[in-house]
Amino acid sequence: MKLAKRGLPLLSVAVALMHLQTSWSFAPTKSFTVRELRTNSISLSFTIDDDESSMVSSKFNANDDAPLRESRTAEEGDQLIRDELKRELLLLSSVTSRGDFADPEERAILNDIVTQLEALNPSSNQASECAGEWDLTLTSTQAFRSSPFFQAIRSILNDEISADNAFKMHEQATSMGRISRVRQFISENGTFVSEADLKVGPASGTVVTKANFEITNTVTWDVKVESTQVKNSNILFLDQILESLELPVGLLYQNVRGSVPVSKLTHWYVDETMRIARDVDDNYYVFSRV
């Protein structure tokens, strides 16, 4: 008799569990598959056999806070995807030397990862959240083009093909040299400093370019170059001269052409550890926060 009394509650539990299992749905999010658990109202009944007469009913309505839970689940899923994409990006960037030695297949993978990260951007005001020190991790073009000095030249040329040809000539002319670390120091007051460590034969030094920027919308900067100089040179007798010689590029532009060229830099992705910006030619620059 005791077994018969408990049979119905146990059957209810079994049916409820089967209902829970069949109510799971798996839906693709972005270009990845993220599993979301959605349940309907489930009623569970069970018997507490203290005196074989006490019955307790428990009802769980999973739809009461469904929108909140689904939103939280989606955010957590996006964060997991971002973390995995960034790991893959940093690994491939490292083995291809910032993308310089990427073959066509690797380049396609890098481009795809960058595009997916931009689609998963967690910020709503990227242009205002870039303050800090950043290392250039990856680029789809020459690393030196991340400098405001060369961005200004690109603006003057005002033509993508002409700019590409000019920068390729510059790259060939300086092929004996090697660019190692590239950094940017960005301040909240609208100024930033770009540094590129160069090595040409036995000579080495750091090209330092200063610039200012104006935030024009949530993603875009208008950048104007100010000056450039060489620091930390190991060339005897010239190191002190180079250290003291700061070329006022912005002032020269102002005097020669009547205005300082404006370069557009658009930030499509910014979080606590990574920043992705694109120039007017849609070349991307991926920076990691130091």
Describe this structure in words.
Helix content is 37%, strand content 33%. It has 290 residues and is of the alpha+beta class. The strands form 3 sheets. An 8-stranded antiparallel barrel has the order 5-6-7-8-9-10-11-12, surrounded by 4 helices. A two-stranded antiparallel sheet has the order 1-2. A two-stranded antiparallel sheet has the order 3-4. A hairpin with a 5-residue loop joins strand 11 (274-278) and strand 12. Helix 2 runs antiparallel to helix 3 (104-119). The longest helix has 30 residues, at 66-95. The termini are far apart. Residues 1-62 have low confidence and may be disordered.
Percent of residues in β-strands? 25-35%
As laid out across the biggest beta sheet, the strand order is: 5-6-7-8-9-10-11-12
Q: What would you call the structural class?
A: alpha+beta
- Count of helical segments? 7
Shape descriptor reads globular
Query: What gap, in angstroms, lies between the N and C termini?
Result: 72 Å
Catalogue the unreliable spans: 1-62
Helix content: 25-40%
Radius of gyration: 29 Å
Rounded average pLDDT = 81
* Secondary structure: number of strands: 12
Q: Describe the sheet with the most strands.
A: 8 strands, antiparallel, barrel
Order of helices and strands: HEEEEHHEHHEEEEHHEEE
